[in-house]
Design goal:
Blueprint (H helix, E strand, L loop, with lengths): L1 E5 L14 H16 L3 E5 L6 H6 L2 H19 L7 E5 L8 H6 L3 E5 L4 H8 L7 H11 L5 H16 L2 E4 L2 H10 L8 E3 L14 H8 L6 E6 L9 H11 L9 E6 L7 H14 L3 E7 L3 H10 L2 E4 L8 H8 L4 E4 L2 H6 L5 E4 L4 H9 L3 H13 L3 H12 L1
Helix pairs in contact: 1-17, 9-12, 10-11, 13-16
């Protein structure tokens, strides 16, 4: 059997562009299935565009890219015999024509890296409107919405109606889908946590890593690792440190923050400028903007750190959180679907926005090495290969 894997953000690993977790999962699945060969796999990715260009599109350009890629991938799939071909969709808004492919007899399995309707409710509606209400508003007033919103709502609804299975990385994501679309059979939705990234090299030795960045060996080092976009919420850490600097109990030892990642997508550049302005206010904390790190530089960043900080407002999983666990780092996270699926008290703390600074203060003075060891054991027990095998079984 053949599987056509459509991925608008896939196949750009060599560029090291800040495309996000969906792109990383695509690359890891392709590598794992190339090794295990459960079926014949063909990746259908964008032609004539770079990963960096995709992250720089404005709203109108991105909507156009979604529609063009969806049309092109549909035409490509239709050239294959539906009796011998399954379709795996990596990116929903950029996905093929689900209804047409279903009518032609193709089996479609969809990966949910993010529930975009829930994301809109959380990030833009500030949680004041539920995803279910947004879907109802779209049904009644969608003709008034911008093109990108119509595309998002229509594609998400179609993928739910016409895919034979949906793979989600966390239980909370499944629950939100069922609440938003109550007609969907829960048996079609499989919760498959991605697990720890494969072939992850160990972090660089602590002293050597700190020497590489010019960091004192007695410093306390916090690390964030994600693209620079508003939903990643790195400002929460910088604001908390600013508040703490005004208090008498701020540590006497050197305090450092790594902000690893590059600006990406529509609001990325403005968000980076805001982060740099907030960092400039700090007088007792040194902030290092390391850019998009990979390879040896990434190993050094993990090796130099004491604590991983995962302040995102909205996450369906947390691949970088699992990478931090692999590196033996405890974590401080906000409460969201991704953290709820992974965090345990033994690995650090999951908190609210109002509780963030107190939680950070507790962790700075806590026994972090023991937490890091527990986190490393957890990551070792949940390899990505297990997720790849479960998804392959759904496709065959």
């Amino acid at each position: 059997m053949k599987v056509i894997y459509t991925a608008a953000h896939g196949g750009f690993a060599a560029e090291h562009a800040p495309l996000g977790g969906g792109a990383a999962v695509c690359d890891m699945l392709c590598a794992e299935w190339a090794r295990t060969r459960p079926f014949e796999l063909e990746l259908y990715k964008p032609r004539g565009v770079t990963g960096a260009a995709i992250t720089s599109f404005d709203t109108k350009a991105y909507a156009r890219f979604c529609r063009e890629f969806g049309h092109a991938s549909t035409e490509f799939i239709l050239k294959h015999d539906p009796r011998k071909t399954a379709v795996l969709v990596n990116d929903i808004s950029e996905g093929p024509d689900f209804k047409l492919l279903h009518a032609q007899g193709y089996r479609i399995v969809t990966l949910w890296h993010v529930d975009v309707v829930a994301y809109i409710a959380s990030m833009y509606a500030k949680g004041l409107v539920s995803p279910r209400t947004l879907v109802k508003l779209d049904a009644a007033f969608g003709w008034m919405f911008p093109d990108i919103l119509n595309l998002i709502f229509d594609k998400q609804a179609d993928c739910l109606d016409y895919s034979v299975a949906h793979i989600v990385p966390a239980p909370d994501v499944k629950q939100t889908i069922l609440e938003t679309y109550p007609h969907i059979n829960s048996g079609k939705i499989d919760v498959v946590p991605w697990g720890a990234p494969p072939d992850s090299e160990p972090p660089a030795p602590r002293d050597a890593a700190r020497d590489a960045f010019g960091i004192p060996r007695d410093a306390f080092v916090m690390l964030t690792l994600s693209r620079l976009s508003p939903e990643k919420n790195q400002q929460l850490l910088l604001d908390a440190l600013y508040s703490w600097e005004q208090q008498r109990n701020f540590p006497a030892r050197p305090m450092y923050v790594f902000v690893c990642g590059a600006a990406a997508y529509m609001q990325g550049a403005r968000h980076e400028a805001s982060l740099r302005a907030k960092a400039a206010r700090l007088r007792k904390t040194k902030v290092i903007f390391a850019g998009h790190v990979h390879g040896q530089r990434k190993r050094e960043a993990f090796g130099a750190a004491d604590l991983y900080v995962f302040p995102s407002k909205h996450e369906s999983y947390g691949l970088t959180l699992m990478e931090a666990f692999q590196a033996g780092l405890p974590a401080l996270t906000l409460s969201h679907a991704g953290a709820a699926a992974l965090m345990e008290p033994a690995f650090g703390a999951m908190t609210t926005r109002s509780g963030f600074l107190p939680a950070l203060q507790r962790l700075v003075s806590a026994g972090l090495p023991a937490m890091g060891a527990a986190a490393r054991d957890h990551a070792s027990a949940h390899p990505f290969a297990g997720a790849a095998a479960r998804i392959a079984a759904r496709l065959i």
